[in-house]
Amino acid sequence: MSFSRRTLLKASAATAVMGGIGAPLVARAQTAEFTYKYANNLPDGHPLNQRAKEMAAAIKAETNGKFDLQIFPNNQLGSDTDMLSQIRSGGIEFFTLSGLILSTLVPATSINGIGFAFPDYDTVWKAMDGNLGAYVRGEIKKAGLEVMDNIWDNGFRQTTSSTKPINGPEDFKGFKIRVPVSPLWTSMFKAFDAAPASINFSEVYSALQTKIVEGQENPLAIISTAKLYEVQKYCSLTNHMWDGFWFLANRRAWEKLPADVRTVVAKHINAAAIKEREDVAKLNAGLQQELAGKGLTFNQPNVAPFREKLKAAGFYAEWKGKYGEQAWELLEKSVGKLS
Ligand code: X2X
């Protein structure tokens, strides 16, 4: 059935129910042919969701209403672990997930999170929009998921705590820290002799509030938009890893779209990622002051001793072995020698 016919039938059914007096014959220009769900774990106020809304409107306009992207922020459809299984089964069509968490399915995708590998954003975007990112996307596709070209920024991660600032690696000893569900995170904080607990982001605020854990680590944009400052006292600018979100699609849902619709959808998603990167960078620049005003005490430790500690614990050698020569070489070509 064509849209116009379906729309007309719907409209006339409504007319019948309403008694047909004065009811408009055609309520809407066109009913969407494809209504796809995009779910994520971030608060509505985070730039990722702001840009996603803009992007959804642009896609709708350019497809003349054919494609309707519905956004479900803030773990409305479940934790990352739940959403990862939904994107695989087709329960949701799109999902943004940290490569580190995606590594529970596709081991190579955590590679950008290796501790203290990336010094700055220039290096990050060169690598992730270049050969390292292409390699990782290839691995994701081999595992049966689709992925858009441009990774979205989560950011450089900082450590917060309700008990003490982190000044050097020795402060991590015995530290009860929440980490996302990912072997790389657990491994890194174990190498610091901390006590990492794997907890989905949906549970982080309450885990901090009830002191199940002392601290957590996240970029400032998340510490701010998820209001973690309400339940934390210290923020140590450890910059210990860079994390980003891959924009994933369920393969069957993606392939069901006509090629021209796919092109429009991908174009707007990738353009939104570039804007979101700029938003997060700008936001982070002003956030330290703002968060200090909200009661967080900041410190900026020297990162060299942290890196030394990881090296001495065999962390880099272990992960080089896990990723293999090819992937490790791509990483070191971007960031310099690590092991
Ligand atoms: O779970 C987290 O800490 C978050 C929001 O940063 C990720 O998605 C990895």
Overview of the structural elements:
The chain has 14 helices and twelve strands. Helix 7 (183-191) links the parallel strand 7 (176-179) and strand 8. Strands 1, 2, 3, 4, 5 and 11 form a six-stranded mixed sheet that branches. The protein is globular and about 60 Å long. Residues 1-27 have low confidence and may be disordered. Helix content is 46%, strand content 17%.
The CATH superfamily label of the largest domain reads: Bacterial extracellular solute-binding protein, family 7
Counting H and I runs of at least 4 residues, what is the number of helices? 14
- Indicate the proportion of strand residues: 15-25%
**What ligand molecules are bound, each kind once?**
(2S)-2-hydroxy-2-methyl-3-oxobutanoic acid
Give the end-to-end Cα distance, rounded to a whole number of Å.
Answer: 61 Å
The coarse overall form would be globular
DSSP strand count: 12
Structural category is alpha/beta
